[in-house]
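Annual report, structural modelling task.

Input specification for the fe (ii) ion complex:
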Amino acid sequence: MDSIVSNLAIGLLNKSVADELSAIHQYMYFHLHLEDQGLGPLAQLFKQTAIIEMGHVETLAERILFLKGEVEMAPSTPVEKITDPAAMLAKAIEMEKASANDYNRAGQECGARADAGSKQIFEELVGDEEAHQGRFEKQLESIQRFGPAYLALQSFGNVDPSNPGA
Ligand SMILES: [Fe+2]
Ligand SMILES: [Fe+2]
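The model returned the following structure:
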Protein backbone atom coordinates (compact mmCIF):
# COMPACT_ATOMS: atom_id res chain seq x y z
CA MET A 1 0.00 0.00 0.00
CA ASP A 2 1.43 3.41 -0.90
CA SER A 3 1.95 6.02 1.78
CA ILE A 4 -0.79 8.36 0.49
CA VAL A 5 -3.36 5.59 0.90
CA SER A 6 -2.11 4.53 4.34
CA ASN A 7 -1.91 8.15 5.56
CA LEU A 8 -5.52 8.70 4.56
CA ALA A 9 -6.58 5.55 6.39
CA ILE A 10 -4.53 6.49 9.48
CA GLY A 11 -6.34 9.86 9.57
CA LEU A 12 -9.77 8.20 9.32
CA LEU A 13 -8.83 5.58 11.91
CA ASN A 14 -7.53 8.19 14.38
CA LYS A 15 -10.67 10.31 14.00
CA SER A 16 -12.64 7.16 14.80
CA VAL A 17 -10.47 6.40 17.86
CA ALA A 18 -11.24 9.94 19.09
CA ASP A 19 -14.99 9.46 18.62
CA GLU A 20 -14.89 6.06 20.35
CA LEU A 21 -13.02 7.57 23.33
CA SER A 22 -15.69 10.30 23.55
CA ALA A 23 -18.41 7.64 23.52
CA ILE A 24 -16.65 5.68 26.29
CA HIS A 25 -16.41 8.78 28.49
CA GLN A 26 -20.00 9.83 27.76
CA TYR A 27 -21.42 6.36 28.42
CA MET A 28 -19.44 5.93 31.66
CA TYR A 29 -20.76 9.33 32.79
CA PHE A 30 -24.30 8.09 32.03
CA HIS A 31 -23.57 4.80 33.81
CA LEU A 32 -22.43 6.58 36.98
CA HIS A 33 -25.44 8.90 37.12
CA LEU A 34 -27.93 6.09 36.39
CA GLU A 35 -26.40 3.98 39.18
CA ASP A 36 -26.71 7.01 41.45
CA GLN A 37 -30.40 7.32 40.50
CA GLY A 38 -30.96 3.62 41.27
CA LEU A 39 -31.59 2.70 37.63
CA GLY A 40 -29.36 -0.37 37.52
CA PRO A 41 -30.41 -2.08 34.25
CA LEU A 42 -30.02 1.04 32.09
CA ALA A 43 -26.76 1.84 33.93
CA GLN A 44 -25.50 -1.63 32.99
CA LEU A 45 -26.50 -1.17 29.34
CA PHE A 46 -24.33 1.95 29.15
CA LYS A 47 -21.43 0.25 30.92
CA GLN A 48 -21.57 -2.79 28.63
CA THR A 49 -21.74 -0.54 25.57
CA ALA A 50 -18.73 1.48 26.81
CA ILE A 51 -16.77 -1.78 27.10
CA ILE A 52 -17.66 -2.68 23.49
CA GLU A 53 -16.52 0.81 22.38
CA MET A 54 -13.22 0.12 24.16
CA GLY A 55 -12.86 -2.97 21.97
CA HIS A 56 -13.44 -0.71 18.97
CA VAL A 57 -10.59 1.56 20.07
CA GLU A 58 -8.35 -1.50 20.23
CA THR A 59 -9.34 -2.74 16.76
CA LEU A 60 -8.83 0.72 15.22
CA ALA A 61 -5.53 1.27 17.06
CA GLU A 62 -4.15 -2.10 15.95
CA ARG A 63 -4.88 -1.16 12.34
CA ILE A 64 -3.18 2.24 12.81
CA LEU A 65 -0.05 0.52 14.14
CA PHE A 66 -0.11 -2.03 11.32
CA LEU A 67 -0.11 0.93 8.88
CA LYS A 68 2.89 2.37 10.80
CA GLY A 69 0.93 5.30 12.16
CA GLU A 70 0.74 6.76 15.66
CA VAL A 71 -2.37 6.36 17.82
CA GLU A 72 -3.70 9.74 18.98
CA MET A 73 -5.46 8.79 22.22
CA ALA A 74 -7.53 11.97 22.62
CA PRO A 75 -11.32 12.17 22.82
CA SER A 76 -12.96 14.30 20.11
CA THR A 77 -15.52 16.07 22.32
CA PRO A 78 -15.99 16.79 26.04
CA VAL A 79 -18.60 14.88 28.05
CA GLU A 80 -22.07 16.46 28.04
CA LYS A 81 -23.47 16.68 31.55
CA ILE A 82 -26.85 15.09 30.82
CA THR A 83 -28.57 13.41 33.80
CA ASP A 84 -32.13 12.83 32.54
CA PRO A 85 -32.40 9.20 31.33
CA ALA A 86 -34.51 9.96 28.23
CA ALA A 87 -32.13 12.78 27.25
CA MET A 88 -29.17 10.41 27.78
CA LEU A 89 -30.72 7.89 25.40
CA ALA A 90 -31.49 10.58 22.80
CA LYS A 91 -27.85 11.73 22.97
CA ALA A 92 -26.54 8.16 22.71
CA ILE A 93 -28.80 7.42 19.70
CA GLU A 94 -27.51 10.57 17.99
CA MET A 95 -23.88 9.53 18.69
CA GLU A 96 -24.40 5.99 17.37
CA LYS A 97 -26.09 7.26 14.19
CA ALA A 98 -23.23 9.72 13.60
CA SER A 99 -20.65 6.95 14.12
CA ALA A 100 -22.42 4.56 11.74
CA ASN A 101 -22.58 7.33 9.10
CA ASP A 102 -18.90 8.22 9.57
CA TYR A 103 -17.80 4.58 9.39
CA ASN A 104 -19.92 3.90 6.31
CA ARG A 105 -18.23 6.83 4.59
CA ALA A 106 -14.76 5.90 5.87
CA GLY A 107 -15.25 2.33 4.63
CA GLN A 108 -16.21 3.60 1.18
CA GLU A 109 -13.17 5.90 1.04
CA CYS A 110 -10.83 3.06 2.02
CA GLY A 111 -12.48 0.71 -0.48
CA ALA A 112 -12.13 3.28 -3.27
CA ARG A 113 -8.38 3.37 -2.56
CA ALA A 114 -7.97 -0.42 -2.51
CA ASP A 115 -7.50 -0.62 1.28
CA ALA A 116 -9.74 -3.62 1.91
CA GLY A 117 -8.32 -4.23 5.40
CA SER A 118 -9.42 -0.82 6.73
CA LYS A 119 -12.69 -1.00 4.80
CA GLN A 120 -13.54 -4.31 6.47
CA ILE A 121 -12.89 -2.89 9.96
CA PHE A 122 -15.14 0.12 9.32
CA GLU A 123 -17.91 -2.12 7.97
CA GLU A 124 -17.79 -4.34 11.06
CA LEU A 125 -18.03 -1.27 13.28
CA VAL A 126 -21.10 -0.03 11.35
CA GLY A 127 -22.90 -3.24 12.35
CA ASP A 128 -21.99 -2.81 16.03
CA GLU A 129 -23.00 0.87 16.17
CA GLU A 130 -26.35 0.11 14.52
CA ALA A 131 -26.95 -2.61 17.12
CA HIS A 132 -26.19 -0.09 19.90
CA GLN A 133 -28.54 2.41 18.27
CA GLY A 134 -31.28 -0.23 18.16
CA ARG A 135 -30.87 -1.13 21.85
CA PHE A 136 -30.95 2.53 22.94
CA GLU A 137 -33.99 3.22 20.74
CA LYS A 138 -35.83 0.31 22.35
CA GLN A 139 -35.22 1.76 25.82
CA LEU A 140 -36.29 5.26 24.75
CA GLU A 141 -39.47 3.90 23.11
CA SER A 142 -40.34 2.06 26.33
CA ILE A 143 -39.91 5.26 28.37
CA GLN A 144 -42.14 7.09 25.88
CA ARG A 145 -44.79 4.35 25.94
CA PHE A 146 -44.86 3.55 29.64
CA GLY A 147 -43.53 6.77 31.17
CA PRO A 148 -40.33 7.36 33.15
CA ALA A 149 -41.56 4.91 35.84
CA TYR A 150 -40.68 2.16 33.36
CA LEU A 151 -37.02 2.53 34.31
CA ALA A 152 -37.70 2.33 38.04
CA LEU A 153 -39.96 -0.72 37.59
CA GLN A 154 -37.25 -2.30 35.48
CA SER A 155 -34.96 -1.94 38.49
CA PHE A 156 -37.32 -4.06 40.63
CA GLY A 157 -36.74 -7.00 38.34
CA ASN A 158 -33.07 -6.68 39.12
CA VAL A 159 -33.39 -7.36 42.85
CA ASP A 160 -31.80 -10.62 43.88
CA PRO A 161 -34.61 -12.54 45.71
CA SER A 162 -32.07 -14.35 47.88
CA ASN A 163 -30.69 -10.98 49.01
CA PRO A 164 -33.49 -8.39 48.75
CA GLY A 165 -31.65 -5.87 50.89
CA ALA A 166 -28.72 -5.65 48.47
FE1 LIG B 1 -17.87 2.06 18.59
FE1 LIG C 1 -21.54 2.28 19.67
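The chain has a mean pLDDT of 93.
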